[in-house]
Amino acid sequence: MTTPRRPLARTATRTTRRTTVRTTVRTTATLACVLLATSAALSSCTASRQEPGQAVAAVADAVELADSAVATTNLTVVLLDGGDLVAPVADTAISDQIGELSDASSALTTLVPPDDTSSALRVQGLAALAMAVDAVVSARAWVAHTAGGDLGPDGGVPTDPRDVVDALDEAADQLEAVLTEAGR
Amino acid sequence: MKKLLGVALGILTAIGGFVDIGDLVTNAVVGARFGFSLVWVVAVGVIGICLFAEMSGRVAAVSGRATFEIIRERLGPRAGGANLVASFAINLLTLTAEIGGIALALHLASSVEPRLWMPVAALAVWLVLWRVKFSIMENVVGLMGLLLIGFAVALFLLGPDWSQVAREITQPAVPEGEHPAAYWYYAVALFGAAMTPYEVFFFSSGAVEEKWTAKSLGQNRLNVFTGFPLGGLLSVAIAGCAAVVLLPHGIEVSTLSQIVLPVAQAGGTLLLAVVIVGIVAATFGAALETALSSGYTLAQYLGWSWGKFRRPAQAARFHVTMMIALLLAVAILMTSVDPVAVTEFSVVFSAVALPLTYIPILVVANDPDYMGARVNGRVANTLGSVYLGIVLVAALAAIPLMIATGAGS
């Protein structure tokens, strides 16, 4: 008995084709799922205009970030003043917090508030943030002064740590007032 | 006496080598947000890593072969290849985080920009990989990593209300004001940080490097079951310091400089210096381990000559892989990406990749063809199966939780 070559070859070709088609369909489906998931994940990032509730939450998030930066700076100043911290670590800690304030500022300034309530809250948030930036930048200047730099009162640099802490406390109060307004 | 010293050294290096930048950052973030309420996850993660590290060490000691050689043999080249791609990518992300961690720690000590430290750190890692013997490298860095014990000292000096701490640990709950999804997102991140896959690749390949045999199994168990839990306690101490000092101030941890402030408050500049050296050593050690793991995984999958016990010329492709991985890590960091953010993502993606590493280990540890009489016992298998369930749940939940919570924010 001889084996019919042609039909077998055809079956094999058909099976290969079917497998190829199946693999292509599977790959396409997987790619589609990945694309869909990516679009879903990124859709929130592209929405600059938000719902009122979302905008208030975005303002509150940014203000919370600033509040944390002010609290970190306050702790750093107290520790350096008490001799528990060295100047390079204090400088790094405060410079990191300036970066956090910059992120908070970016979040607030790029927000497009959809209603008057969130817009007013954003204005308050920006004012409180400006105060926080001043206080944290002054604190860093005080650290440089403490480390033996040439900065002094003539350059507007506080020399008394109590002044630095007071400014930070005041900034924290402003930020917390905004958070209270936002319902946090 | 010599044997006793060897055992002690093994345990000490296991403790010192346990904590890396992922553990440091994740535990501090969690402590500052959730207090002690996620300590149970560290405990679950430590039991898991002990279980699977012991298994992978036993497989390497008995079969004389490392994890990835066996993964390819058991899963075949296609499934093994997919596993390699995922593991290599996660490992590269972790290596990037570790190099960033060294740079941040040096930035903390010197105020010099971290981006200037990054190439220096990578160069130092490469020099050690190129020139230093495996045992010296492992022991020196592991012992210096022990300086992180400063976090435990700091927690003790801070003197929290221990009964309150015990209550938070034993009766965990989502703190007021926190969303349950964020709580579970960080639970998955902590679990991923404790069970990072590179630890197993490094551990099993290290067993081959050090020429373990069946006789080394006792020491393997002692190192793992004593060293790793004590290393886990260091993780808890990091979270504890953040919970005691940063949480009441409303400080959200987003930088390495915040993590050391509680140490300064508790122990002043001396303890701070000790901890900073510990952080440099721990991240440096982890960078060595992850760089080696990139070489190990690729070389073991492709059947190249590998290992630090060979001269670089005899394992050229293995060494080139590590060099390329280091260059890629520096290139990623030079894009101004935040190393702390890289770390946070690396632990979450580690959680996603956990089943790829741990399922094959459990399969091989049960295979009498490889293991002979040293196959898993009933207890190891029961625990291993339970952990596979946990690992699968963590892997499936990681990405949805990341999207739902905006990466924990």
TrEMBL record, chain A:
**Superkingdom of the organism of origin:** Bacteria
Q: What is this protein called?
A: Uncharacterized protein
Automatic annotation (TrEMBL), chain B:
User: What is the predominant subcellular site recorded for this chain?
Assistant: membrane
Say if the entry is tagged with keyword Transmembrane helix: yes
Q: Name one Pfam family in it.
A: Nramp
Q: Which InterPro entries match?
A: NRAMP_fam
Q: Which residues cross the membrane?
A: 32-53, 84-110, 116-132, 139-158, 183-203, 224-247, 267-288, 318-335, 347-365, 386-407
| Localization per record | Membrane
Q: How does it sit in the membrane?
A: Multi-pass membrane protein
GO MF term (any one): cadmium ion transmembrane transporter activity
Q: Which PANTHER family match?
A: NATURAL RESISTANCE-ASSOCIATED MACROPHAGE PROTEIN 2 (PTHR11706:SF33), SOLUTE CARRIER PROTEIN FAMILY 11 MEMBER (PTHR11706)
Record-given protein name: Divalent metal cation transporter
